[in-house]
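User: I've been trying to design a sequence by hand for this structure and keep getting stuck. Would you show me what you'd pick, starting by listing the structure so we're on the same page?

Assistant: Good idea, let's start from the same input. This is the structure you sent:
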């Protein structure tokens, strides 16, 4: 049994924060942020939540796919910023959309979270366990940022993206690759709960995202092209056969470097980071939804997807659209 992606949806918080807005509250500038990252603005939550944005993105994807809540039998959310340790964000989405027949759980693979969710859903559909899956990448990263650390907080944003994938005789997942390197996990880390038990002296200090930007950059520009090459070859295709590359939206320089290493025009790399910033697991599905709603995706097109980030983790896939 194969799998097709049949609908997408997304949801961004109402409040837009530009680089100039940030320059009013910290020592930074539009020039520094734009030239180093390509980011011009991002959406940040006020009253919105990870689960609320996920449910909204899910409803839009369901409408786009023509799928009802009762039909969904699997919900997977990729997130590192769920509203609660438990229940899982996926369970909150299940309740919010009324998908009573679904099994629901979260995956923590940071910026690769949506891609891992896609690959797990594919495995379940392929083995015949479920028929219709709702997969989501969703984050409220702004609550994990140290707003006194200008080298990280300007990079990230909040939002959610969703896709419906369905079991189908025609296999739309042409190939995938995924990997992890826990030994290098310290270069992009976030610990948000310190030990509170009576055996230790309690530190009330919360820890926020800490990143060695240059190490993450080096990891991305070597691992992503290698993973994409491997996946495209496994799909029996050449790089030229790929119509679009939908990459995790971390930084324009990473995307330009990947395009150069693959010898592909940057025109094949759609961008959302300029208006969204880096939204970790939500980046790829939000970008896919924007591409879908702009009418860029035509039946039969080959789209290469790739996520990479904390863990360290990475995952690529080549899908056939429609
Ligand atoms: O999902 C994966 C997420 N991770 C990434 O995408 C990270 C990939 N890494 C990068 O994209 C880049 O490493 C950054 C954009 C994060 C940083 O660029 P960089 O060229 O590596 O800058 P840097 O950290 O070496 O800092 C250069 C200078 C420093 O000043 P000095 O020491 O040279 O005087 C920083 O203090 O830029 C300064 N700086 C800033 N200046 C203005 C750091 N952040 C800012 C800021 N505004 N927001």
């Amino acid at each position: 049994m194969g799998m097709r992606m049949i609908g997408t949806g997304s949801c961004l918080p109402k409040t837009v924060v530009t680089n100039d807005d940030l320059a009013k509250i910290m020592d930074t500038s539009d020039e520094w942020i734009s030239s180093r990252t390509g980011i011009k603005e991002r959406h940040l939550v006020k009253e919105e939540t990870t689960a609320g944005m996920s449910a909204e993105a899910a409803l839009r994807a369901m409408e786009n796919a023509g799928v009802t809540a009762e039909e969904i039998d699997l919900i997977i959310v990729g997130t590192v910023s769920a509203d609660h340790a438990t229940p899982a964000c996926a369970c909150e989405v299940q309740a919010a959309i009324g998908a009573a027949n679904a099994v629901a759980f979260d995956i923590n693979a940071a910026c690769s979270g949506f891609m891992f969710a896609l690959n797990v859903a594919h495995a379940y559909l392929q083995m015949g366990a479920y028929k219709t899956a709702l997969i989501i990448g969703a984050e409220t990263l702004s609550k994990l940022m140290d707003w006194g650390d200008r080298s990280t907080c300007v990079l990230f944003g909040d939002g959610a993206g969703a896709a419906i994938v369905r079991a189908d005789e025609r296999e739309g997942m042409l190939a995938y690759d995924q990997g992890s390197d826990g030994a290098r996990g310290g270069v992009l880390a976030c610990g948000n709960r310190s030990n509170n038990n009576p055996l230790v002296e309690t530190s009330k200090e919360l820890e926020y995202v800490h990143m060695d930007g240059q190490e993450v950059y080096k990891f991305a520009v070597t691992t992503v092209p290698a993973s994409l090459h491997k996946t495209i070859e496994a799909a029996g295709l050449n790089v030229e056969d790929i119509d679009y590359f939908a990459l995790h939206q971390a930084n324009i320089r990473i995307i330009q470097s990947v395009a150069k290493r693959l010898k592909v025009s940057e025109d094949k790399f759609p961008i959302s980071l300029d208006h969204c910033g880096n939204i970790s697991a939500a980046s790829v599905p939000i970008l896919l939804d924007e591409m879908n709603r702009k009418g860029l995706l035509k039946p039969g097109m080959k789209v290469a997807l790739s996520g990479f980030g904390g863990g360290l983790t990475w995952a690529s896939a080549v899908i056939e659209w429609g």
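That's my pick for every position. To get oriented when you compare it with your attempt: The chain has a mean pLDDT of 95. The first strand starts at residue 2 and ends at 11.
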